[in-house]
Amino acid sequence: MVAATPLESPYTVGPDALPLVIEARDDRDVGRLCDWLRAERGFVQERIVRHGALLFRGFDVREAADFERVARAIDDDLKNEYLGTSPRSALTSHVFTASELPGYYPIPQHCEMSFTAAPPRRVFFSCLVEPAAGSGETPIADFRKVWRDVAPEVRDRFEKRGIRIVRNYTGAEGGGRFDLFQLKRWDEMFLTTDRRAVEAVCAREGFEPHWLPGGRLRLVSTQPVTRRHPVTGETVWHNHVTTFHVSAAAGEYARIFRLRPSLRSFGWWQLSRALVAVQRATRSSDELSMHCTHLDGSEIADADVDAVLSAVWKNLSVTPWRRGDVLAIDNQSTSHGRLPYAGPREIAVAWA
Ligand SMILES: [Fe+2]
Question: 127 phi and psi, to 5 degrees?
Answer without folding.
Answer: -95, 110
